[in-house]
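agent> fetching stored inputs for the zinc ion docking request
agent> found them:
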Amino acid sequence: MEKRREDFDNYEDYENYRRRRREYIIRQKVARRKKRIRRRIRLLTFEILILAGVVLLAVKLFGPSKTVDKREVALYDAAVPAANTTADKIEASQKSTEIPEWIVVNYIDEGNPSRSGLKLDGVNNIVIHYVGNPGTTAEQNRNFYNQPDSNVSSHFVVGIDGHVIMCLPLDEYSAASNHRNHDTISIEVCHEDTTGEFSDEAYDSLVKLVDWLMERFDLEADDVIRHYDVTGKMCPLYYVEHEDAWEQFKADL
Ligand SMILES: [Zn+2]
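agent> prediction call returned; pasting tokens
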């Protein structure tokens, strides 16, 4: 409550009081203005942050998307762990762009039980299998893996006619070699009859495919093994029953 002249004994006191009161009111005004300005700055900062967020989101949603060839990425990932020096990296990335034209790439759908998507720890062996279903084609076997209720798959299927289908990226698990799925590349080979012997065309393609993989993963012929060597399963049948044929195959690599 503001005091009046009557409340003071002399005019000087009253004037002093009035001066102090004016100063007090001015200070109050300044304080309120400062407070308003601070609040406005806070609000503005908040608005700028929201706007930046919206812009970032819009760019992410509607901006130019990077279309990277999945095949190249998968191969690059598979090739890179071995790369230590810059020269190695360049070589690996150059290699990564090459899938020989004689390989048909037709990956199993992502999310299928036979494609876990798990990444290989490395590639320590190449495991050879036979499909065990005489007369079936590479496509039929690949499509079999791709069924929603299939839990088997391999990286490659080699047809009786010698053509090669790639069913999985080289850095992912296949579901073929039991406890060795985590560090192996698997190849299933089609065959004409119950002996499980490979046709000449399949055999030649298999040699070509394994040679390519051995070079890519820096492996020796002795790193090429049979499913039999993993679990004792009679697979690939003919090359378990005929040890000499298996030794000859490795010699042909
Ligand atoms: Zn097998």
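agent> quick read of the result: Confidence is low (pLDDT under 50) at residues 65-83.
agent> awaiting further instructions
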